[in-house]
C-alpha cells in the first residue's frame, strides 16, 4: 500500500485567501472562488467594488473587464496564465482570490552525486551540473508547487545524499523523490526522511495525484515493480477520486529503441501497464534512467523520459554511447482538465533552448 504524503498537506491543499482589503467573508452574490477544484493563489492586487452584476475577467496586473450577458463562472486562459472569470449575481465587492489554472512541477533526474564536490561522471562534474540546472530553473519561472526527482540521486555513494539534502532542502518546496539503480536505499531513506522530502507514496496537488514508485531491483541495473508496489499503485489510482494521475518511476516501461538501454528497463512492464490500463485517470507516466528526452502517447497516456542533470545517453544507439547534449530538466504544467504542457529544458546557451510540446492526453 502506498502512503499518502502527509508532509505535503500544508503545501498541497487548496488555500483560499482574499486579496488586500478583501472582506473576511465571501460577499453575497459572488460564486465560490474555487471552481473545478483548482487552487486559488493570493496575488497582490486590490479588491474592487462591482457596480453591477456580471462577469469579471481578472489577470495578474489587476485589469478587470465586465462582460455582459454571460451566466456561468468559468476558467479563462489568459496569456499570463493566472486568470479567472467570476460571475456575480448582484453588485458588490469582488474578492481577488485569483485562480491558478495549473499545477506546476519541475522534474530533475539522475544527478548521480558523489561525496566529493568536484567528482565527475562521464566527463561531467555532477554537483556543479545539478547546481547549474537548478539555478537555470530558478531564473525562469519559479517557484513551482513541487520538485520531482526520479532516481539515481547518487552514483553508488551514500556520501552524495548530504549534498542532495543541502541543495534541495533549502528551496522551501516539497521534493518528491524515488530511488534509482545507483541509489543506496538505506542511506536514502535515512537522509531524506523529513520535510521537505517525500520518498515514495503519493501526493495530491489540486486536481492531480502524483504517484511515486520504487522500481529498483537490488544489485541490478534493470528494474521491476514488486507485487506490493503494483497493488499500491492500483490502490492509489483507484482512490484518486476525480483527480488525474501522473505515475513516476525510475526505469522506462516501454522500449527506448536502444538495444543496450532496453536490456536494463522495467522487466515487468507488461504488468505495470496492465494496472495503468485498468484505470482511466492516468494521464502521464514519467521516468528517469534513460538520460535522454522521450515523449510519446500510449492509449491516451503521455509517456515522458527526461534527460539527466549530468551526462546524456545517445538516443537510438544499439551500443552504449554518450550524447554531447548538456544537462537538462523537465517542466510540467498539469491542468485541471487533465491535459498537460511539458518542456524539456537544456542548460546551455549554445543549445537551442527547449523542445516545447502541447499535450493531447486529456
Ligand atoms: Fe542514471
Secondary-structure map with pairings?
Elements: H1 9-12, E1 40-42, E2 48-50, E3 54-59, E4 64-67, E5 83-88, E6 92-94, E7 97-99, E8 102-108, E9 120-121, E10 124-125, H2 126-138, E11 146-150, H3 161-169, E12 175-178, H4 185-191, E13 197-199, E14 201-205, E15 208-212, H5 227-238, E16 244-249, H6 259-262, H7 269-277, E17 282-287, E18 294-298, E19 301-305, E20 312-313, E21 322-323, E22 328-335, E23 340-346, E24 354-358
Parallel strand pairs: 8-11, 11-12, 12-13, 15-16, 16-17, 17-19
Antiparallel strand pairs: 1-7, 2-6, 3-4, 3-5, 8-22, 9-10, 14-15, 18-19, 20-21, 22-23, 23-24
This protein binds fe (ii) ion (FE2).
Fe (ii) ion (FE2) binds at residues 110, 112, 152, 180, 289, 291, 308.
- How many distinct folded domains? 2
Helix content: 10-25%
Per CATH, the architecture of the largest domain is: 4-Layer Sandwich
Count of helix runs: 7
Beta-strand content estimate: 25-35%
With strands numbered from the N-terminus, the spatial order across the biggest sheet is 13-12-11-8-22-23-24
Query: How far apart are the first and last residues' alpha carbons, in Å?
Result: 27 Å
CATH class of the largest domain: Alpha Beta
- Main beta-sheet strand count, sense and barrel state: 7 strands, mixed
Anisotropy-based shape: globular
Low-confidence stretches: 5-100, 350-362
Query: Based on helices, strands and strand pairing, what is the structural class?
Result: alpha/beta
**Integer average pLDDT:** 77
Bound molecules: fe (ii) ion
CATH fold title of the largest domain: Purple Acid Phosphatase, chain A, domain 2
Amino acid at each position: 500500500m502506498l502512503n499518502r504524503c502527509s508532509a505535503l498537506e500544508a503545501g498541497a491543499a487548496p488555500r483560499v485567501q482574499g486579496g488586500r482589503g478583501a472582506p473576511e467573508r465571501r460577499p453575497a452574490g459572488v460564486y465560490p472562488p474555487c471552481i473545478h477544484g483548482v487552487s486559488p493563489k493570493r496575488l497582490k492586487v486590490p479588491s474592487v467594488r462591482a457596480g453591477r452584476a456580471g462577469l469579471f475577467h481578472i489577470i495578474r496586473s489587476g485589469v478587470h473587464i465586465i462582460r455582459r450577458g454571460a451566466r456561468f463562472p468559468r476558467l479563462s486562459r489568459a496569456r499570463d496564465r493566472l486568470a479567472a472569470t467570476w460571475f456575480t449575481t448582484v453588485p458588490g465587492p469582488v474578492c481577488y482570490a485569483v485562480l491558478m489554472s495549473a499545477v506546476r512541477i519541475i522534474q530533475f533526474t539522475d544527478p548521480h552525486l558523489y561525496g566529493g564536490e568536484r567528482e565527475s561522471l562521464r566527463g561531467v562534474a555532477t554537483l556543479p551540473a545539478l547546481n547549474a540546472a537548478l539555478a537555470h530553473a530558478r531564473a525562469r519561472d519559479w517557484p513551482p508547487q513541487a520538485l520531482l526527482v526520479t532516481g539515481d540521486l547518487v552514483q553508488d555513494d551514500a556520501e552524495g545524499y548530504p549534498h542532495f539534502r543541502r541543495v534541495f532542502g533549502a528551496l522551501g518546496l516539497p521534493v518528491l523523490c524515488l530511488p534509482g539503480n545507483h541509489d543506496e536505499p538505506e542511506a536514502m531513506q535515512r537522509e531524506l526522511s523529513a520535510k521537505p522530502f517525500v520518498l515514495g507514496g503519493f501526493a495530491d496537488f489540486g486536481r492531480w495525484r502524483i504517484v511515486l514508485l520504487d522500481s529498483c531491483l537490488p544489485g541490478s541495473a534493470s528494474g521491476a515493480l514488486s507485487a506490493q508496489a503494483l497493488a499500491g499503485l492500483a490502490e492509489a489510482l483507484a482512490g484518486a477520486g476525480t483527480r488525474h494521475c501522473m505515475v513516476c518511476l525510475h526505469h522506462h516501461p516501454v522500449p527506448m529503441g536502444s538495444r543496450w538501454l532496453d536490456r536494463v528497463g522495467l522487466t515487468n512492464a507488461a504488468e505495470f501497464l496492465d494496472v495503468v490500463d485498468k484505470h482511466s485517470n492516468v494521464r502521464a507516466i514519467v521516468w528517469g534512467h534513460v538520460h535522454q528526452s522521450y515523449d510519446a502517447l500510449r492509449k491516451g497516456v503521455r509517456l515522458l523520459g527526461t534527460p539527466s542533470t549530468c551526462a546524456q545517453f545517445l538516443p537510438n544507439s544499439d551500443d552504449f554511447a554518450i550524447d554531447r547534449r548538456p544537462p537538462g530538466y523537465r517542466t510540467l504544467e498539469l491542468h485541471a482538465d487533465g491535459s498537460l504542457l511539458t518542456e524539456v529544458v537544456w542548460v546551455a546557451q549554445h543549445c537551442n533552448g527547449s523542445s516545447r510540446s502541447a499535450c493531447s492526453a486529456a
